[in-house]
Amino acid sequence: MPVTLHTDPHFPCPQRLQLVIEHLNLPLQETFQYNILKGEQKTERLLKINPAGSVPFIEDELDAQPFFLAESRAIARYLVARYGKDSGLMPDPSNLGEYAKFEQAAAVEVAGFDPAANPLVLEEHFKPNLFERDPDLHLAQWLRKRLDPVLSNLNNTLKTQPFMAGEKLTLVDFFYVPYTHYLVEIVWPSCFEERPHLAAWWASMTKLAAYKSVYGSKE
């Protein structure tokens, strides 16, 4: 497959995309890994094709004109639409109800879960362990309070369905995985203790081969 991946596998957004690549079993043409703490992804050539200087991003040379794309969720959608149509990870737009539920679930992840989980993991894990900076404990406490009702709402959603968007595993489930991994394994291990439906969903996600490939087996 003529897709080249540029990434730093130590961080959640690249991991989000890697989970999807692993699940789809996509044979990449080439993978370049960078240390983003050293700014290795901001060379002159790379900034010309990816001005934001972020990872992950891809180069797809299937067509005559190479196609460049950044942002993990956008890339995941693109790869499924182009190379994983039969995966079931995105619903058929002609099924309006299923497609609307998928978009609703995706919106909850990006607008409800991520704005609290992302900075909380940054404060309590990445700052002290990778950036060698002290966490802002007051901010972390506020973020936990903000995230708590989001987790409860997700638990309620999962009372009546096994996955975030309904009866089937979709991209949305993978979108949740990286920050959930750091929450459950490192930052807030008790966050699912009184949320059995969320805990059951997480147990099913950690059994997937893609999860084991990216994070290792929990067994």
From TrEMBL:
Boundaries of every GST C-terminal domain copy: 95-219
Source superkingdom: Eukaryota
Domain annotation GST N-terminal: ranges: 1-87
Pfam families in alphabetical order: GST_C, GST_N_2
Membership in a protein family: Belongs to the GST superfamily.
Protein name as catalogued: Glutathione S-transferase
Species classification: Eukaryota, Fungi, Dikarya, Ascomycota, Pezizomycotina
